[in-house]
Structure formats: C-alpha cells, structure tokens
Design goal:
48% helix, 14 helices, two-stranded antiparallel ribbon, 331 residues
Length: 331
C-alpha cells in the first residue's frame, strides 16, 4: 500500500490515520500498516454484507464508499470472522493476525473517544496467542562469509549496507532513510527510528571504513536526493525493496538462501553478536536498538546451546565423582 492510497479510504479511517501521524507521531510505515489492516477489514465487511459481488477479487474491492453505519455497527463476530478469513484464506500467521486484531481494536477505540460510537464492542476483541520464539540469526562465521561474498558493480555500496546492518542492528526503514548529514565528524550516526524518534549510534572502525569506501565512489552528478546516503542505479534514494533484494542476492551467493534469513534477521544478528561477544548488557543493547521496552530487547539476549553446555561444565562440582569400590573388597 502506498501512502497516497490513504486518501482513498473512508473519512472515518482517514481521520484516524491523520491522528496517528500528526498527534501520535507514528512513522509513515506504521501508519501504512494500520491503513492496510483496516482496509482489509472493511473489504471483508463489504463482502460479508453483500455490498459487492462475491466474484469480485478481494484485493480489488473499493472501500471508499462503504456506508459509515457498516463500519460503526461492526460486531465482535465480524472481527472474529475476519481473523478466521485471514487464517484460512489469506494464510496469515499468528503474528500477522494479532497485529490486525490490534489495528481494529485501536481504530474503534479512536471512534469511541471521538463520539462516533457509544458501545465499543471491539474493546473486548482478543488477539490470537503468539508464540515468542528465539530470534533467528547468523553465526559469526556466517556473518563473515556474507560480507566476503559481496562483489559486483555496486560492491562498495552493498558492502556498506551489510556492514551497517550487521554492526549497528538497524531496521530496514532506518537504513534507507540515512542521510549523509546524519553522519557526524565524531564518528556517530543519528538514526530516525519508530515514531520518528532519533537516537545516536556510535560507528565502529568497520562502519567508518565501509562508509568512506562507499563515499569515494558514490555518484555526485545528477543525483535526485543529494543528501541520501544510499543511492539506486537511477540516482534516487535506494528503496526498501532494492535493499531486500540485495541482501537476498548475497545470502544466496554465500550459500544461505534456504535458511530463512532476511534483512531483519541481520538486525537480530547484530544484537546477538554484540551480546555474546561484546559483553553488552541488555540496557545498553536497548539503547543501541532503539527499543521502547527492555522486554523487547531481552529476546536478543538468548544464550546458545554451546554456552549452556560450557556453563554446566564450569560448575566446580563437575570433577567430583563417586569413588569406585576398591578392587578385591569383600562384601
């Protein structure tokens, strides 16, 4: 969904999205996620209320003219039927469905606060239970192999992208939004994270070296966005999709295409490596990653099985064993 599509949604929804952006200071990406979730729900309402022909492609249903009363009178059963549809037809996983439940709940809370509805039944919507597993990440050797796999016409740019991901734990949205002016002479990088919140990241030698190498070959003429750090071949700011394709290309080249890694897994990797090898405590890691809550950071502070084994082996009682019976001892 593109940002301009927000203004094709019903006024009730557009007003809410403007509130998220202007008052709650949510990032454009977050606003788009809410918009996409709510639009899906409205499409489902139109289909279930027979406001469109059942043969209509679901993703082509135009919600711009859905009657306000259909939105305002939606029930918990409507919400649960929608979540069932997302699971069975759209094959959304638990996390995706949980996000949609939250989007619906918060939208109707806004409508209630603004006097659009009195009996807000959506306040009682329950989210699907999510399983909080350990984050997937590259090992140190895999990370090194990935960096060494970089070659080609844009090798300095691509190496710099991977280096910042693996050393700084950046989000994809944060990386593509980096401006040259965000890089300070004191070796720090100002990053704009979720909710347009800024944080300062200290660049290590690898990052500084990679940035210098890239800047020495970065195009200067005919550049559309002169302050954008990473440029596409069309001399515009590099897109999220281009970065994702670049990461996947080198993951494949390094022999890791089928291991479920992605740009976000590189963020997991940076956090895990800092914790395992850098003696970084969770509070420091929280600041580096730009997390709101420490509980979010703690998923990165898992310990691998080898470390668990070493911890048990290091127990001082490890060498205390039962003495065998003396040979020839009479019973």
């Amino acid at each position: 969904m593109r940002y301009e599509e927000i203004y094709t949604l019903p006024p009730l929804v557009t007003d809410y999205l403007n509130y998220l952006s202007a008052i709650k200071n949510k990032s454009d990406l977050t606003v788009l996620e809410y918009a996409s979730d709510i639009r899906l729900f409205l499409r489902f309402l139109m289909l279930s209320h027979k406001l469109v022909d059942k043969s209509t492609d679901f993703d082509e249903i135009n919600v711009s003219e859905i009657p306000d009363n259909i939105i305002l009178n939606a029930t918990l059963n409507d919400a649960y039927a929608f979540l069932t549809y997302c699971r069975t037809v759209r094959k959304n996983d638990t996390n995706a469905r949980a996000r949609k439940a939250v989007s619906i709940k918060r939208f109707y809370r806004y409508l209630e606060i603004n006097g659009k509805i009195e009996n807000n039944v959506m306040a009682f919507i329950e989210s699907p239970k999510t399983k909080r597993g350990l984050p997937k990440y590259l090992t140190l050797d895999q990370s090194t192999d990935l960096l060494r796999s970089v070659d080609g016409k844009n090798k300095e740019r691509d190496f710099c992208i991977l280096t910042l991901f693996l050393n700084c734990g950046l989000r994809l949205s944060e990386l593509v939004s980096i401006n040259i002016s965000d890089i300070r002479d004191n070796g720090t990088l100002v990053v704009t994270g979720k909710g347009n919140k800024e944080r300062v990241i200290y660049l290590n030698d690898a990052c500084i070296s990679a940035i210098r190498s890239y800047m020495s070959v970065r195009p200067k003429d005919r550049v559309v966005d002169r302050d954008a750090l990473f440029l596409s071949n069309r001399l515009t700011r590099i897109s999220r999709e281009m970065v994702q394709k670049t990461v996947q290309k080198f993951l494949e080249k390094a022999g890791m295409a089928d291991k479920g890694f992605s740009t976000h897994k590189l963020r997991h990797t940076a956090a895990t490596l800092m914790y395992q090898y850098g003696n970084v405590d969770p509070l420091q890691l929280k600041e580096i990653l730009g997390h709101e809550n420490l509980s979010t950071t703690e998923i990165y502070t898992h310990i691998n099985n080898e470390q668990l084994k070493k911890a048990v082996d290091s127990n001082p009682l490890n060498d205390v064993k039962i003495k065998p019976d003396s040979e020839g001892k009479k019973s």
